[in-house]
Amino acid sequence: MTSEPSTVDTPLKKLVGEKTAKALASHLDLHTAGDLIYHFPRRYDERGEHTDIRSLDVGEQVTVLAQVQRTAVRPMRQRRGNLLEVTVGDGSGGVLTLTFFGNQAWRERELRPGRWGLFAGKVTEFRGKRQLNGPEYVLLGEGGDGEAAANEEVEEFAGALIPVYPAAAAVPTWVIARCVRVVLDTFTPPEDPLPATVRAARNLVGIDTALREIHRPSSKEELYRARRRLKWDEAFAVQLTLVQRKHRAADWPAKSRSSRAGGLLDAFDARLPYELTPGQRTVGAEIAADLATAHPMHRLLQGEVGSGKTVVALRAMLQVVDAGGQAALLAPTEVLAAQHHRGMLDLLGPLAQAGELGAADGATRVELVTGSLGAAARRRALAEVAEGRAGIVLGTHALLYEGVDFADLGLVVVDEQHRFGVEQRDALRAKADQPPHVLVMTATPIPRTVAMTVYGDLEISTLSQLPQGRSPIASHVVPAAEKPAFLDRAWRRVCEEVAAGHQAYVVCPRIGEGPASEEEPPREDDNGRRPPLAVTEVAPLLAEGPLHGLRIGVLHGKLPADEKDAVMRSFAAGELDVLVATTVVEVGVDVPNATVMIVLDADRFGVSQLHQLRGRVGRGSAAGLCLLVTEAMEGSPARERLDAVASTTDGFKLAELDLEQRREGDVLGATQSGRRSHLRLLSLLRDADLIRDARAEAIGLVEEDPELDRHPALAASVAALVDEERAEYLEKG
After folding, report:
1. Cβ atoms 729, 673 nearer than 8 A
2. Which of 139, 291, 297, 731 has its CA 20 to 30 A from that of 13?
């Protein structure tokens, strides 16, 4: 170990020793002084304040601040030796038993009643009592007066606020705290990357103060100021990256695709059987203006399920065809691609029949390209695309394959963008000679701060109105374990709807026999619950039981493409009463006669997924009903989540709930890259104002200094916080 000055790049082994450095590297991926300094505490415990032991979950790896209440030694039954049981409490009535095996009289002397300590281990339960078996611990001082013991092990806990770090069983929080203290004793901070003008305008502390106070806070006020400054660094780095990319994109050359009077778009509008909503008209005008510019449109179109995004996209595609180009729509599944194809052919009629009898003047062709096309059909479709006769091309990832060539690709529409990897979307964009215009569509509403942070380099359009004729959807939770009669009533309701001439969906989380797939969760979760219900198992039970006599079809991702298409066609034509399916029906499936959906094991689905699923009903003139069947007990987090879904159809509220329950850092592509998220402190929901202010400062700075040439320290900080891989993820959106 060294007492020489250290920097962010100093290897930890020079500072904390080889053995500790190896543990930090292998268990927490911390290799340098900078890695450790930016490994911020997860929370802060305060002596005398309780940790709420009653809220701990069995199986959770925890660190608790608690006081020893009593100790007891008793002989072990199965083997020789004694068992030491130590009862600790949190001051609120919550107690936890610590168990130590073997003859450890010294430990009994050390863990005297009244001592406060940090205790770390995995929560287990024995005879109804919460316990930690053989936990790691560090005692904070003599008696209960909160004064720190004068030994090196607990010197870092001298303050009132005790940092608790994201830790590992082999590297508990107090070891991390000790290492941080060693590093801070020699640490030379980097040059402050934030321009002095921004620091002064936003009343932010310097980087050195922030890094020291976040680890060893002198007061709650100083901790707040430190966290605020470090959140600013994160928000500013992301916003600078997005604003820079938006600035550069403005200089990219693209072919203008202006609207043309008397073309396909005008003819389409004239034959539409309904009025566009004001929202569709407004968003359509925004897109039309973007397409007419000489740099690529990069727009996100978000709207509730059933808000009419597809018609908006089709009008944009027709504008591009009118301007002599081609448009491609990339859909996540063959079912959805085929449905788009059928829907667009119906809407366009003779406008999509170029080369056929009865075609309208100036008609184009709409081609479908999927992996299941036969060889002859594929050759014909690809020729239509390559020679430009097909103005509109629809498909799955098969559009990305080599051999799919466009004559003049002018617009790429990506449906349900969260289903595609960055590389897949970019591969389609690369098929154009010049950057094409890009329209990204999603029915998963995105909270404002997420859109600002992840899609900050896209223009954002939102459709909030539902078209005329759409019906409201009522949602209810069916507690199958507590009230089995409610489930019986749900099946009777399906029969009633079918008797009234309507149809129903039954959605299961799993397909059935065979390995798990993307639409099929693992057989058994970590809590040992039964396997999720499966389509292939549920369908015959329903046919023999509560839905006996109804025409039942099965749909899931493992069926051959032609079989999937046949099932969907049968259901759409009213030849099936009930469709038992996986989440393959989550997006785009449009059967206006379907009025009821029963989601089995609803607690196994995410909030946004449930919102998407229920959007499959209520698409016609009859009201929709969604029943969320669960065995989750009242008061459990899973049940509260379902109650929230049932209580509102506001997708933006649900998106915020969904975000609260996920690791927010994932939105920056950490999941995609398999790396740690660099959003360590910033909360996309709680820090909305800070993100907005950071964006305003970023816009001003980039206008003055587009490449940050006059701010090299800031440029380096941005590169460290938003690395190239993550920047590409943001850029490709």
Report:
1. yes
2. 139
Q: Which tops the pLDDT comparison, 296 or 428? A: 296
Beta strands, E only, 25-113:
43-46, 61-75, 82-89, 95-101
Residue 66 bridge partners (DSSP): 117
Mark 385-399 as b/e (b = at least 16 C-beta within 10 Å). beebebbbbbbbbbb
Q: Whose structure tokens read 């029915």? A: 443
Residue 479 φ/ψ, nearest 5 degrees:
-80, 90
Please state whether beta strands 116-126 and 61-75 pair in parallel, antiparallel, or not at all (unpaired): antiparallel
Indicate the residue type of 635: G
pLDDT level of residue 720 (50, 70, 90 thresholds)? confident
32's tokens: 């340098």
Q: Quick one: CA torsion of 290, 292, 293, 295, rounded to 10 degrees? A: 80
Among residues 473, 406, 466, 403, which one has the least CA distance to residue 614? 473
Residue whose structure tokens are 């604003």: 243
pLDDT of 335: 79
Give the contacts of 643 (CB within 8 A, at least 6 positions apart): 477
* Integer Cα distance of 506 and 494 in angstroms: 10
pLDDT above 70 (res 600): yes
* Chain centroid, CA 124 distance in Å: 30
Q: Are 437 and 250 in contact (CB under 8 A)?
A: no
Instruction: Calculate what percentage of the chain has a pLDDT beyond 90.
Output: 34
* Cβ(685)–Cβ(659) below 8 Å: yes
What are 134-162's pLDDT values in tens digits? Answer: 788 888 765 433 333 334 444 445 556 88
Sign of the torsion formed by the C-alpha atoms of 175, 181, 182 and 188: positive
The pLDDT-based confidence of 214 (bands split at 50, 70, 90) is: very high
Q: How confident is the model at residue 425 (pLDDT cuts 50, 70, 90)?
A: low
CA–CA separation, 659 and 653 (whole Å): 10
- Alpha helix stretches (DSSP H) within 298-405: 309-322, 334-348, 375-386
pLDDT of 418: 52
Q: Name which of 151, 60, 84, 165 is nearest 118 in CA terms.
A: 165
- Amino acid identity for residue 418 in this structure: H
From CA 211, how far away is CA 141, in angstroms rounded? Answer: 26
Length of the chain: 733
Tell me what the pLDDT averaged over the chain comes to: 82
Q: Which one has a higher pLDDT value, 466 or 225?
A: 225
Nearest to residue 433, comparing CAs of 299, 252, 275?
Answer: 252
Helix axes 724-732, 220-249, angle to 10 degrees: 60
* Interatomic CA distance for residues 591 and 433, integer angstroms: 38
Residue with token string 């992996």: 371
Within 560-609, strands assigned E span: 578-581, 594-599
Q: Which of 165, 168, 215, 167 is nearest to 189 (CA)?
A: 215
